[in-house]
């Protein structure tokens, strides 16, 4: 309900301010389960994707976004709650698995779910190797993965910045990557790795980022 109220108001306002270039929305299925897998450059990514996607997208969000104080904390909490984000404590592996289970339930109910395969945002602008949770979700739900490439969101709210800034942003939704029947007979671990690598290759081709070739280890948060 919050999404239906906020989206028609916030989207035109944000579009007028930031004027994002949005490409490929026709690739996002209008109905049915789908995973949107994106690179991750900024806190703003979790605002930009719901604003530009042609349908409501739920996603995992670190629990800190739901517990902040002051005006910024209230805005963050209301936005992430409104778009159906699922909170996850990244320091608790069991909580992370429970969150993936909730994400899978969302997909099985016919929803769209967004995820950052890198696990955490890139602080140097490179694209890091994807973790296989994205493939686990798609294979379990039997649904396609739409790769998403974001550029410029790191300039909206750079690491350590207190307030957002105007910046040129581009969002590209790529062609869906199907899973049905493609990995029959392939061991599950190998199927997850292959699908994840395919998704990351598609994101790399669209984003033009430098390939890091390694996992992005989470760094301590900088003070606001």
Automatic annotation (TrEMBL):
<keyword id="KW-0808">Transferase</keyword>
<feature type="domain" description="Phospholipid/glycerol acyltransferase">
    <location>
        <begin position="34"/>
        <end position="153"/>
    </location>
</feature>
<keyword id="KW-0012">Acyltransferase</keyword>
<dbReference type="GO" id="GO:0016746">
    <property type="term" value="F:acyltransferase activity"/>
</dbReference>
<dbReference type="Pfam" id="PF01553">
    <property type="entry name" value="Acyltransferase"/>
</dbReference>
<protein>
    <submittedName>
        <fullName>Lysophospholipid acyltransferase family protein</fullName>
    </submittedName>
</protein>
<dbReference type="InterPro" id="IPR002123">
    <property type="entry name" value="Plipid/glycerol_acylTrfase"/>
</dbReference>
